[in-house]
Amino acid sequence: MELSGFLRSRRDRLRPADVGLAPGPRRQAPGLRRAEVALLAGISVDYYVRLEQGRGPRPSDQASPRSGVRCG
Q1: How many CB atoms lie within 10 A of CB 24?
Q2: In whole angstroms, what is the distance from residue 70 CA to residue 6 CA?
Q3: pTM score, two decimals?
Q4: What Cα–Cα distance (Å) separates residue 15 from each residue in 19, 32, 57, 59, 65?
Q5: How many of the other CB atoms lie within 10 Å of CB of 21?
Q6: C-alpha dihedral over 61, 54, 32, 47, to 10 degrees?
Q7: DSSP secondary structure letters along the chain
Q8: Contact 43, 49 (CB under 8 A)
Q9: Each residue of 33-71: b (16+ CB within 10 Å) or e?
């Protein structure tokens, strides 16, 4: 599985309560919002979106572990 598919599948599986976030307003799709994942990973929302859509460069060694730990 490529990185973009991995990130999407993990984001869809997680609920806000799984990562210590309040449920917040109604969600149109299951799982975490991209902004929530980016916040938890310590990266910008734009960078996370590019990674998830397969448009960005490979994540740095510094960003990769944080994204994986939070998402999987």
Answers
A1: 9
A2: 12
A3: 0.71
A4: 7, 6, 27, 24, 20
A5: 15
A6: 60
A7: --HHHHHHHHHHH--GGGGT----S--SSSS--HHHHHHHHTS-HHHHHHHHTT-SPPPPTTHHHHHHHHH-
A8: no
A9: bbebbbbbbebeeebbeebbeeeeeebeeebeeebeebb
Tokens of 49: 């979106």
> pLDDT value at position 50?
92
Residue 3 identity: L
* 3-59: pLDDT as tens digits: 889 999 999 999 999 999 888 778 888 899 999 999 999 999 999 999 998 886 665
